[in-house]
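We emphasize that the prediction below concerns an isolated chain of 183 residues; any contacts that depend on oligomerization or on bound cofactors are therefore not represented. The input was used exactly as deposited, without trimming of termini.
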Amino acid sequence: MRIISGEFGGRHLLAVPGNKTRPTTDKIKENLFNIIGPYFSGGRVLDLFAGTGGLGIEAVSRGMDQAVLVDRQGAAIKVITRNVAVTKAPSRFTIVHSTAAAYLKRAAGHMQFDLVFLDPPYAKQQIVDTIKQLAQAKMLAPGAQIIAETDTQVTYPVVPQFSLTRQVAYGITELAIFQYEGE
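Result of the prediction step, given as a token string:
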């Protein structure tokens, strides 16, 4: 696993030991950023189920100003901390040891994000509820993109204030890209 492109491109990232996380593969990560970017001119990114922190780190490497990396597992937080150290730019990252729900409650109204990654454990997917919480908490900048990584069995209802702009499957993994149309 590595940072694919940008300022930190080519640097290797650690994986979380065990099977409680499922890191996004380099192939999927590269395809994702080709769809949504591939580069950015500033902004904030939230990686809500960060695991290794790879998606948020990649976004900062490609031009986002700042990333908030949230995970509930202590082992993941240790790996994220080490992976952020690889960038040699730790001030551009905030690492939060918390559940997604607790973070959203605590951070409501304090910060807005231009890009949000949602890659929860496949068995515990609550993508639509999380998207609605982000909007209700006023944590999304106008036009923000939300990328959900799920298994291919997920279907999405119409979500007010959001459009589902693209869905792409890679084996058992599917990426869904939502655009925030509120405010």
